[in-house]
Amino acid sequence: MSDVMMARPVCLTIGGSDSCGGAGIQADLRVFDRLGVYGCSAITALTAQNPLHIARIEPVSLAQLDAELHALFDYYDVAVVKTGMLLDAEHVAVVSGLLAELHHGSLVVDPVMISSSGSVLLDQGGVAALRGALLPQAALITPNLDEADALLGQPSGYAADSPVEAVKALREALGCPVLLKGGHADGDMLLDLLCDEEEGIHRFTHIRQCWSAGEGHGTGCRLASAVAAGLANQMPLVPAVEAAIAFLQECTA
């Protein structure tokens, strides 16, 4: 490994492999590289997909995931971990247990629950395990509006209609800062809301981009990984979120 790579802070992404490269591990590693951090990965599942649908999901064995994480933490001083698709309670348990044991930096959780095409990417047991074991370790969780409704047990559309109330409720219920992503809302102007450690609300508005299906695929992954890169580069949370949103608006792939 070059001295330049070794000089970069290390970010580890844990999630699914996206065969079309727009989301998941592939997207995260591209973002890490562009934002000046060295990226490592541990894969929870292989997917056969394109920007329009997921044809198949093949879980990685728990033994393989355990081995990947041990191998990485044995060698690298990981500054920030970002998690994506975790599939089920068993995979969440491996990840949360090893991070509690081995990781001493920040954790950004992207609660990948349902794909834009409707595929379930985290089952109900996994949601419970996420809330009970992983989120207590998190520096930030980044749900979209649909995921916020699911985490709050609210009907579809609640977070879109009442985003401030939703992000406050998530911050209280989950016990960690929350970035509520507004990309699934209607209208030409979108609103992302951050409820920080002190329960302060920060608003980030931006114009809806005219992205193709391929460009829009994986935007949530890229936003969360950009926040993780900012934290690894020693940015405080609010500036890291602001920089990540600006990066995503300027760079679609």
Automatic annotation (TrEMBL):
GO molecular function: hydroxymethylpyrimidine kinase activity; phosphomethylpyrimidine kinase activity
InterPro entries xrefs: HMP/HMP-P_kinase_dom, PM/HMP-P_kinase-1, Ribokinase-like
UniProt entry keywords in alphabetical sequence: Kinase, Transferase
Residues annotated as domain Pyridoxamine kinase/Phosphomethylpyrimidine kinase: 18-251
Pfam families the UniProt entry points to: Phos_pyr_kin (PF08543)
Gene Ontology CC: cytosol
One GO BP annotation of this record: thiamine biosynthetic process
Recorded metabolic or biological pathway in which this protein acts: Cofactor biosynthesis; thiamine diphosphate biosynthesis
Enzyme class (EC, first level): transferase
The enzyme's E.C. designation: 2.7.1.49
Coiled-coil residues: none
Name the record gives this protein: hydroxymethylpyrimidine kinase
The organism of origin for this protein: Mariprofundus ferrooxydans PV-1
